[in-house]
Amino acid sequence: MHIVLDNYNLTVAERLLCETALTTAGSIVEAAKLLGITRHALKRRIIKHGIRWNREGGRIMDANDGNRVAAGASAAAAVSV
Fold this sequence. Notes:
This protein has a single domain, classed as Arc Repressor Mutant, subunit A, CATH 1.10.10. It is 43% helix and 17% strand. It is built from three helices and four strands, in the order βαααβββ. The chain has a two-stranded antiparallel ribbon. The chain has a two-stranded antiparallel ribbon with strand order 2-3. A hairpin with a 4-residue loop joins strand 2 and strand 3 (59-61). The longest helix has 16 residues, at 10-25. The chain is globular, with a radius of gyration of 12 Å. The N and C termini lie close together (6 Å). Residues 67-81 have low confidence and may be disordered.
């Protein structure tokens, strides 16, 4: 899987990796396994980056209107995961 970044901003990259893992895995536990971190560490990052995660539906929610958003919608420099 390839993840595309607009720049080399580590904060943006971390958020994008968390969103992509959550979308791919469908649960916090499985996403944490994909990232190689504990679920507690992932939950801290979800809070840090303000990621709205729908636990029941297993999807990322847009903070403004509650619509599902695709992880990594904007792109430019490719990073392999």
